[in-house]
Hints:
- The complex is a heterodimer.
- Chain A is mostly helical.
- Helices cover 64% and strands 0% of the residues of chain A.
- Chain A has helices at residues 12-19, 21-36, 43-56, 60-74, 78-85, 94-108, 115-123, 128-150, 159-172.
- In chain A, helix 3 runs parallel beside helix 5.
- Chain A is globular and about 50 Å long.
- By secondary structure, chain B is mainly α.
- Chain B has a single domain (12-171), classed as Up-down Bundle (AhpD-like), CATH 1.20.1290.10.
- Chain B contains nine helices and no strands.
- In chain B, helix 1 (12-19) crosses helix 2 (21-36), helix 3 (43-56) runs antiparallel to helix 4 and helix 4 (60-74) packs across helix 9.
- Classes of the chains: A mainly alpha, B mainly alpha.
- The interface between A and B is large, with 49 and 49 residues.
Amino acid sequence: xxxxxxxxxxxxxxxxxxxxxxxxxxxxxxxxxxxxxxxxxxxxxxxxxxxxxxxxxxxxxxxxxxxxxxxxxxxxxxxxxxxxxxxxxxxxxxxxxxxxxxxxxxxxxxxxxxxxxxxxxxxxxxxxxxxxxxxxxxxxxxxxxxxxxxxxxxxxxxxxxxxxxxxxxxxxxxxxxxxxxxxxxxxxxx
Amino acid sequence: xxxxxxxxxxxxxxxxxxxxxxxxxxxxxxxxxxxxxxxxxxxxxxxxxxxxxxxxxxxxxxxxxxxxxxxxxxxxxxxxxxxxxxxxxxxxxxxxxxxxxxxxxxxxxxxxxxxxxxxxxxxxxxxxxxxxxxxxxxxxxxxxxxxxxxxxxxxxxxxxxxxxxxxxxxxxxxxxxxxxxxxx
Lengths: 190, 184
């Protein structure tokens, strides 16, 4: 049971973003720019950063949601699993391994980011904007994960829920749906 | 020195939002709505939550600047800020604000650390759902801001007079600094 009254058909983050829409607007805008805006990192790579950080923050809802988004974008499930469970063996570029390492350091705390990991990323060709966006995506998910779990939102158990959500994040990104979320009332949350 | 090529001589988050205004704009809008928007928590109290979480995240830039903003907003009662940062339990703030700061402290560690008894304690002292929501979101937002500022090793001034000036400016609201693209 969430700690505050939220719409029962909107588990996880969506109910919170609907609860207070004036604070949701800049959060959604920031997420859309970082995760779907013009970037030399692919949308799949950016979802992997979100997945790794959410997993390290033990946020089941965000981990499942962004794993599903990464999988539907990448068209396979192996990469996201390895990023979460054994980063060194993940089938991603050396540059992405360096950026994901930076993200994992941000998850621990800002001061945990080392000059060595920044150097590694730069040697592998990461640009300043890529490093900036990696740090800010990781920091943003430290917000989301705490928001979602700190208010004890509902975490659905059915994998169908996350497959639908992953598809929605691929098709529509992070902006509020034009007509809101009333249509989801017909889909039972399990 | 910052890890990326941000403008020289500009401290903390200001240098980062000048580097990337596309993300800076919603970041400043979020600070404005959470810390200056409509709320039954005073602006001084909300800045105190920001300073408290930043202190626990060991982010000197955010802690010093939001403490300065909170002092400005508390006015004659500015000593409250340093009392809370030193020993929140024995400070002279209300029991309700103490309960909210305890929730913020749990959020700083991790979302799951917030327990039903923490929420019950705050509600028994009169905290509303919306105040609890805003406390959690402010605390979560500063877990982002703190990591952004320190994760890119942005410049943290050590001169207290710089923070007093920042606090006075922040007390009036969060406005994006001019960037090379917007300066005419």
